[in-house]
Amino acid sequence: xxxxxxxxxxxxxxxxxxxxxxxxxxxxxxxxxxxxxxxxxxxxxxxxxxxxxxxxxxxxxxxxxxxxxxxxxxxxxxxxxxxxxxxxxxxxxxxxxxxxxxxxxxxxxxxxxxxxxxxxxxxxxxxxxxxxxxxxxxxxxxxxxxxxxxxxxxxxxxxxxxxxxxxxxxxxxxxxxxxxxxxxxxxxxxxxxxxxxxxxxxxxxxxxxxxxxxxxxxxxxxxxxxxxxxxxxxxxxxxxxxxx
Length: 244
Known about the structure:
By secondary structure, the chain is an alpha+beta fold. Helix content is 21%, strand content 29%. The chain has helices at 27-37, 46-60, 69-77, 83-98, and strands at residues 114-119, 126-131, 136-140, 148-150, 159-164, 171-176, 180-185, 190-196, 204-210, 215-220, 224-229, 234-239. The strands form three sheets. The protein has a four-stranded antiparallel beta sheet, with no helix packed on it. The chain has a four-stranded antiparallel beta sheet with strand order 5-6-7-8, with no helix packed on it. Strands 9-10-11-12 form a four-stranded antiparallel beta sheet, with no helix packed on it. α1 (27-37) packs across α2 (46-60) and α3 (69-77) runs antiparallel to α4. The radius of gyration is 36 Å and the shape is globular.
């Protein structure tokens, strides 16, 4: 009698069910655990339960990358973010802001580079611009009138400093490579010379005006700083010490 062959039995493949990690589970799957985070007190409302639920879900989910500058700096202060990531956040924020910038107006009255700029203290749309050739433009870009143009001497007349007179905003101070610090009006007339050099090797390369102290300060190319009052009287001249 022939022996019967036993029918081959296929092994049922084992299915291993792994629990999803908290990072990959959906909010619905996390809901039971979120409810455990809330201790429901007597008389608590449904609104409170819902708020507590989503607060729990938020604590279980991974936070999104920090893109806010203040938050990035705060995280860096707490030691939660390295400085390169903070720098990246700052760069991204700056680049995003550039997308909203547009050229509003432009003017090109000079045949040489623009060397100094000054905003009018009481008219936000008025700007004074000095050039390497000593030319000065008074530009009110809020109106369509042609800008006021004051012709300079050309080569050697570079405007190195430009400030409006805080006591009379129809006047402005200039320092230049021409060797002078002077007060001028909008027509280009020189009202007063505050400092002057007669030698071409010396000139003034910086200028500022203090409205509070009523003092004009100017510096030359050999390290001297000169303070004058608004009448042009020299108060003090200080030579800068050479650096070691």
